[in-house]
Design brief:
Elements (H helix, E strand, L loop, with lengths): L2 E6 L2 E2 L5 H7 L8 E2 L1 H11 L1 E7 L13 H9 L6 E5 L8 H14 L3 E4 L1 H4 L14 H12 L4 E4 L18 H7 L5 E4 L7 H10 L3 E4 L8 H4 L10 E2 L12 H9 L5 H15 L6
Parallel strand pairs: 1-4, 2-3, 4-5, 5-6, 6-7, 7-8, 8-9, 9-10
Helix pairs in contact: 2-10, 4-6
């Protein structure tokens, strides 16, 4: 059976700008820049049907802007059934009209969702609320995604990159988003690891529209973090975070996950069925 990796950072050479390369030296990590054919070979070796590539904007970190996702889609057009591209908007750097413009442009280009990274963007996922910051751009992001049946992937947990503010990584703020946008597909990336895994697990249990991806959690520690993982297997997505720090590669990470001591049927749900229900490849 072929599997699906729902969270990677496999960035193609043709989509990476000089500004992005120059920024990496100051954040403490350089994301590998890859040729498409190389990625396809690695996917075939790992028996992956398709991978989801996160291509979100981040001025202070990667130097990436909202057109990054569109360039990634253009680069991936040769293999439209093998890639799914998640974009995003840096809401606290844009006006309301600019936010709308980029959401529409990315949607027209073929993104399969949007990414919000609170520790990198220095915002809380519920900053659209009046008692928080009243950020209309963030509300627009959720409304647009909800209306167009696209998931929003929200980073939870810590980040070691130098500009990150980890106080924003607490998943509890997703609770407001879940309540206020009940039709929105919310993907809680990394499940709050390592500080907030109990909060993340509880949100999976009580909020119908919150799912979680297992990316960046070492497979050998998965049941240590989540001993009751199989109770929520219908709401989990396999992801490797490949391209990010500490991940050995698409094949090695998937092999590690397939060795986790849970039922085979749960592995199929997490690494194939659930991701396929949430993400679309470029070839819609």
């Amino acid at each position: 059976m072929a599997f699906i990796d729902s969270h990677t950072h496999l960035w193609f050479k043709g989509a990476v700008t000089q500004e992005m390369r120059e920024n990496w030296s100051r954040v403490g990590y350089e994301i590998p820049v890859l040729e498409k054919d190389q990625v396809i070979r690695e996917m075939d070796e790992a028996d992956l049907e398709f991978v989801v590539i996160i291509a979100y904007p981040m001025r202070r970190l990667w130097g990436a802007r909202e057109d990054f996702a569109i360039r990634m889609i253009q680069e991936a057009r040769d293999f439209p059934n093998r890639f799914s591209i998640v974009g995003g908007v840096e809401v606290n750097q844009l006006t309301l009209e600019e936010t709308r413009k980029w959401l529409e442009a990315q949607y027209s280009a073929g993104v399969s969702g949007f990414k919000l990274h609170p520790p990198h963007m220095w915002i809380k996922p519920n900053d659209y609320r009046e008692e928080e910051r009243g950020m209309n751009q963030l509300e627009l992001l959720y409304e647009f995604a909800q209306d167009h049946d696209l998931p929003v992937v929200i980073h939870t947990g810590t980040s070691f990159f130098l500009p990150a503010r980890n106080k924003y990584g607490d998943p509890i703020y997703l609770d407001d988003v879940s309540v206020d946008f009940p039709r929105l597909k919310i993907i809680m990336a990394h499940l709050g690891r390592p500080n907030w895994v109990e909060t993340a697990f509880q949100l999976l249990r009580i909020r119908k529209n919150i799912m979680g991806d297992l990316s960046s959690i070492p497979p050998r520690r998965m049941l240590e973090y989540f001993p009751r993982l199989e109770e929520v297997s219908d709401k989990l997505l396999y992801g490797s975070d490949s391209g990010g720090p500490g991940v050995k590669g698409l094949k090695a990470h998937l092999e590690g996950f397939l060795q986790v001591k849970i039922q085979e049927s749960s592995k199929v749900k997490i690494a194939h069925d659930n991701p396929k229900m949430v993400f679309r490849t470029i070839e819609r």
